[in-house]
Write a structure and sequence with these properties.
Blueprint: H1 4-33, H2 38-53, E1 56-62, H3 68-76, E2 97-100, E3 108-113, H4 123-127, E4 134-137, H5 145-150, E5 156-160, H6 161-166, E6 186-190, E7 192-198, H7 202-205, E8 208-212, H8 216-221, H9 223-232, E9 235-241, H10 248-258, E10 265-270, H11 282-300, E11 307-309, H12 312-321, H13 324-330, H14 332-386, H15 392-410, H16 413-432, H17 436-452, H18 459-499, H19 512-525, H20 534-537, H21 540-599, H22 603-634, H23 648-655
Parallel strand pairs: 1-8, 1-9, 2-7, 9-10, 10-11
Antiparallel strand pairs: 2-8, 3-4, 3-7, 5-6
Length: 656
């Protein structure tokens, strides 16, 4: 039985494939036209990469024994005919697990030893390495091989409290959160810090990434999980047990790690099969489940429609057995429909916006290229038709005029050189405000302010000040960009009027979206700098990890803003260079044509026919370009037809 989520995800994948084919058509059309434009080529390549590599990240968060792994099995992997992720009573997932597919990596399970926590290397850096991981390949000839390999995520070992403290898994100041020592004074810790499963499941092949997180203790012990993985997820599914209700540890996870992300969070009240009582009527059982659902919504402070009561185990068994009635009774389909409706149309619209903007830019640039060629050919035709029946003296006069126009045109080269120099200086000034070195200095300044505050009480204030300084830098870049655009726009107008250029200034990037991204980071990360985190802020390990995570996360914003800025400057420079090349080429063609005709008068008509044929071909290419662009835009969903979820923050992140 295919899940509703899987069916809708298939639709999204087919749509991406169709868009990719349209982009290939556009690329082929540009090649036929002879439109060799680096910014357009780079934009097409970027879109292709985005379509092929687009990921949809869904994180599942719960305390131990809430049925989290069983829910993942039921939604995504029931077609395997067995449990893929281990789901037995007690603790199962002891470390964060990511399920995805990368065709460039071997199929298998990669495990990062817990001892790597002793090194000053972030998880993001470890992901770029092959060494240091333990790699377990899957045996495709044995269907149970995947399940056996995944049991490794349950592995634990016992260490002394000193070893646990060095690993950051034992803290004297928070005794209630520490694992219970055995008779020998040793405590249980995970064997692995992180697990990556590279598996060619159909949904994973299409870009789905599933994050299976461990319980509260592991969430608190790995800041990079809460500061990195969870904020990057497009949706978070929080699972509580219908048999236990919302416990204190459940509430701690929600309050400390998920509460501010309610717009992107779903709540699942799992194990409703435990509430079924043979001595109660179905109506009484339903009333009890509904009361539990509404109570959960009230405790967590979410709308009741975002809380779904279901039985993951019953759903998994029903899917494996092909039991439609059992699947209905499990109530899983309701949740899958809500998950897919909230996420998949949004991903489609966000990708569609990127395609729409890029297609419009590329069409305008290519159309200007063709238009300039048509204009130059019109000038040649006018000259050549005027030569019918004219003397050689007339030809000589025209050749002199073309030569004079060419010399006059070359005189503007000095002005263009000066313009490009000013343009380059403006670009350097803008990029200076987005220096990576300055970014590290700003973050270190924040950490210094936190250390200087009494009992770290000024942590949130220092973080807010950091974000404000980053926003000010981005806004200064925006002001400088506006000045540059005004300068270029005025100069382009003069050059177009005096020298017959077709210079058109594209609007520069909008830094506001990156300002919003900094504000989003502030909202997501400020929650880890409150009063409840004072003890963690006193630990050098936590502040070091916080520094790394902030640098890595804000660097993404810096990368995006710098790339947008540099791309715009390159595009403007390329546009100027292209205009120069095309104008020079036009003068050269006119001079060569007149020279040939002067040598052989009978070539006049053949040259006119040649240009007319080229003119017809260019107009056909322009029409074809328009048709392909319109077909591409028709594939983009209409915003009014797409229901967006509450989480508008994801839209801002995707646009950035």
């Amino acid at each position: 039985m295919t899940s509703a989520f899987a069916g809708r995800f298939d639709d999204l994948s087919h749509w991406r494939t169709a868009l990719g084919e349209r982009l290939d058509e556009l690329s082929a059309c540009l090649a036929d036209i002879g439109f060799d434009d680096r910014p357009a080529s780079a934009l097409l390549a970027s879109l292709r990469e985005r379509l092929d590599g687009d990921k949809l990240i869904v994180a599942f968060v719960a305390e131990f024994s809430r049925g989290k792994s069983e829910l993942i099995n039921a939604i995504f992997f029931a077609d395997a005919g067995t449990r893929v992720l281990p789901a037995t009573p007690g603790r199962t997932t002891m470390c964060p697990v990511e399920l995805a597919w990368d065709a460039h990596e071997p199929e298998g399970l990669s495990l990062l030893p817990i001892a790597t926590r002793l090194d000053d290397v972030s998880l993001a850096q470890w992901r770029q390495r092959r060494e240091g991981w333990t790699h377990l390949p899957f045996d495709k000839a044995q269907p149970e091989a995947l399940c056996v390999a995944l049991r490794q995520v349950m592995s634990t070992r016992r260490v002394t409290t000193d070893e646990a403290q060095a690993l950051g898994l034992w803290h004297e100041s928070t005794a209630d959160d520490n694992p219970m020592p055995d008779e020998a004074g040793r405590v249980e810790v995970p064997v692995w810090r992180h697990a990556l499963i590279n598996h060619p499941h159909p949904l994973l092949r299409q870009g789905l990434v599933v994050i299976d997180t461990p319980g509260l203790n592991a969430l608190g012990a790995e800041p990079e999980l809460t500061l990195g993985l969870l904020p990057s997820a497009h949706a978070t599914v929080f699972i509580v047990g219908a048999d236990t209700g919302v416990t204190q540890s459940d509430l701690a996870i929600w309050r400390d790690h998920l509460g501010a992300r309610q717009g992107l969070a779903f709540v699942v009240l799992n194990k409703i099969d435990a509430l079924r009582d043979p001595l109660a009527s179905p109506a009484q059982v339903d009333a009890q489940i509904e009361a539990q659902r509404r109570s959960t919504a009230q405790i967590l402070g979410v709308p009741p429609e975002r809380v779904f009561a279901l039985s993951a185990r019953q759903a998994l068994v029903a899917r494996i057995d092909g039991d439609a009635q059992g699947l209905t009774e499990s109530r899983l389909v309701e949740f899958e429909a809500a998950l897919s409706v909230a996420l998949l149309p949004q991903r489609r619209q966000l990708l569609g916006r990127l395609i729409e903007d890029a297609a419009d830019q590329i069409h305008k640039r290519a159309a200007r290229h063709i238009g300039e060629a048509l204009r130059q050919q019109a000038e040649q035709l006018l000259e050549l038709r005027g030569l019918r029946g004219q003397s050689s003296g007339r030809l000589n006069l025209l050749m002199k005029r073309v030569g004079a126009e060419a010399m006059e045109f070359e005189q503007c080269h000095t002005r263009l050189t000066a313009l490009r120099a000013v343009h380059a200086r403006q670009g350097e000034l803008a990029l200076a405000d987005l220096s990576y070195d300055d970014l590290e200095v700003e973050i270190d300044r924040m950490l210094t302010e936190i250390r200087a505050s009494v009992l770290r009480l000024g942590a949130r204030k220092a973080f807010a000040a950091l974000c404000e300084r980053l926003r000010e830098r981005l806004l200064r870049v925006q002001d400088l960009l506006h000045d540059t655009q005004d300068m270029l726009g005025g100069t382009f107008g003069v050059l177009n009027a005096e020298f017959g250029f077709g210079l058109a200034l594209k609007t520069g990037p909008n830094m506001t979206r990156f300002v919003e991204e900094v504000s989003l980071i502030e909202r997501l990360y400020a929650r880890y700098l409150g009063l409840g985190d004072l003890l963690r802020l006193t630990r050098p390990r936590f502040t070091a990890q916080l520094r790394r995570m902030l640098i890595e996360r804000i660097s993404v914003v810096w990368d995006g803003s710098r790339n947008a800025l540099e791309g715009w400057h390159r595009e403007v420079t390329s546009h100027i260079d292209t205009q120069l090349i095309e104008r020079r080429r036009g003068f050269q063609k006119r001079a060569e044509s007149l020279s040939r005709i002067r040598g052989a008068a009978d070539q006049l008509e053949s040259r006119i026919a040649e240009i007319e044929q080229r003119d017809r071909l260019l107009r056909q290419q322009l029409e074809r370009l328009g048709a392909i662009t319109r077909a591409l835009l028709r594939a983009v969903p209409d915003p009014v037809d797409v229901e967006l979820p509450v989480g508008a923050a994801d839209a801002r992140r995707a646009r950035a």
